[in-house]
Design a protein that fits this description.
Layout (H helix, E strand, L loop, with lengths): L10 E4 L6 E2 L4 H9 L3 H12 L5 H14 L4 H8 L3 E2 L3 H10 L3 E9 H7 L7 E9 L5 E5 L8 H10 L8 E5 L5 H6 L2 E5 L4 H6 L2 E3 L7 H4 L7
Parallel strand pairs: 1-4, 1-7, 4-5, 7-8, 8-9
Antiparallel strand pairs: 2-3, 5-6
């Protein structure tokens, strides 16, 4: 049974888009709109994935190809990211939680280029995220799909926890949208930050409606002695 006492938490896992990066719902959506990729092709790919006709990796590869075909490369993606910003104080909150003795994980269906643009990856003990490979000229050369997006984020939490001899009930998850539903149910403590869906609010142990991540420092003073 999942714990509901934040004092028992040892690992805190985070979503990225809308949780640590401000003002967006999904980075993929933001990039597709920015580069004006083929909207019908995007719709069909999503429809095929959710109907079970293709797997997540194929959906990921289709999205990458649509971005590449629209002229996206390392430089232009970085410029697009420059129009976004991290949630105020996010890096300092992550750093303080780490100092207090928590393991930190990132479990996201976003892209590693966004993570590395806004944060020092060393803040996280475990990172599960989609990865883009760039050729020497900056063009998109391929990538690797995360196995832990959507409902499989819950499995990602289990795998992250197991690296430190923990169970998912000793972990918290901080997210904002409906794709975080299953992992928030699996975690020992769930926090909805600036929630985008009523489902998330309903299952969260704490709702931070204004998105202020410094509230996490009140909730998690440090792990209790084992």
């Amino acid at each position: 049974m999942a714990l509901k006492d934040p004092r028992e938490i040892r690992l805190i896992a985070f979503d990225l888009d809308g949780t640590l990066i401000d003002g967006i719902v999904y980075l993929w959506q933001t990039l597709h709109h920015h580069f004006e990729t083929d909207a019908e092709a995007r719709r069909l790919a999503a429809e095929r994935y959710f109907s079970g006709q293709i797997d997540y990796r194929s959906w990921f590869e289709t999205d990458l190809e649509l971005l590449r075909a629209a002229g996206a490369n390392r430089e232009s993606i970085e410029k697009a990211l420059g129009k976004l910003k991290p949630v105020p104080g996010a890096a300092s909150v992550l750093g303080e939680l780490k100092k207090r003795g928590y393991r930190l994980a990132l479990i996201s269906g976003s892209l590693d280029v966004a993570l590395d643009h806004f944060f020092d990856r060393a803040l996280f003990d475990v990172v599960f995220i989609n990865e883009i490979d760039f050729a020497p000229d900056g063009s998109i050369a391929g990538g690797r799909a995360t196995p832990y997006d959507l409902e499989k984020k819950a499995l990602g939490l289990e795998h992250a926890a197991s690296r430190f001899g923990l169970g998912p009930g000793q972990c918290a998850f901080v997210g904002d949208n409906i794709n975080d539903t299953e992992v928030m149910k699996r975690a020992g403590f769930a926090i909805a930050v600036n929630p985008k869906s009523p489902e998330i609010e309903a299952i969260a142990d704490v709702v931070i409606a204004d998105g202020r991540l410094d509230r996490l420092l009140e909730i998690f003073p440090g792990p209790t002695a084992s």
